[in-house]
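User: Okay, second chain of the day. Same drill as before: sequence in, structure tokens out.
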Amino acid sequence: MEIRVRGASASGDRTRFDVLAQWAAGDRFVQRRSVSGQPDDGTTVAVDTWRTGGLASYQLQVRLMRRTGTDARPSLDLATAMTSRLPATAGRTSRPGVARGTVLPVPRYSQMSHRGHYPRWGGGGQAWCSPTSTAMVLGYYDALPPAKRYRWVPDGHVDPWVDHAARMTFDHAYDGTGNWPFNTAYAAPRAGKAFVTRLRNLRDAERLVAAGIPVVVSIAFDRGELDGAPIGSTNGHLLVVVGFRESGDVVVNDPASPTRRGVRRTYDRGQLEKVWLEASGGLAYVVHDAEHPLPSPATAPSW
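Assistant: Same drill. Structure tokens below.
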């Protein structure tokens, strides 16, 4: 599969098509990859994000492909695109909302348990915050891959489905497992639906949690900006929002914990919201199954 995009100005002038990604569910025949660069027409691709100087419209194109000599018929279930301007600051901390006192039973996996595993996939387990978070959400939906899919993982590797998720989300051009749409593309056929979006604040995340949907969020922080974190600072990290205390503080599964036991943590609402909104503009992976539909438009933002 190849995903391309082009845009048009208010006057109707079109940009050229830029290739966003070449995706495959496996890695036997195709090395999935993003196509960064292509800096023409005032647009450029930054791994998993198409950056523009401001356009009036865009067109997304998906090319479905099959192996030469086969009669397979590829199909497309869902293609989504999300546009936004990043906020300059997080602003005031949002007030607690509908999910106060709700904590979802999301299983806990530690990326650090995989330290040194398969460094050819993004540097090894210590860098696998994204696929580990994705695997936790799939585990919650009882949608992890069957054992035959990760039988190549040696005996003794804890949570071998995390190794599998890292391999199946690895971006061979970016050289990492943190490509956002690659993670949701991996999760979608297992759980049901998955997409990347941006939420306005933690109240939006609460609406999802109240509907039984955990949310993977992308954060970054310096020392002293996130009390209780298992790492002192990071220029990019993903974790799972699994619930909220009655106070509104945020319950997370943070895969950077050195052990499974320490994965479940509670972070100050204001601190987490700030390092999320100001780092990634509220970026989130939303993964859900048929038993947990998205909240109705009357109670949710526009996905």
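The helical segments are 129-140, 160-169, 180-191, 202-210, 269-280.

User: Thanks, on to the next one.
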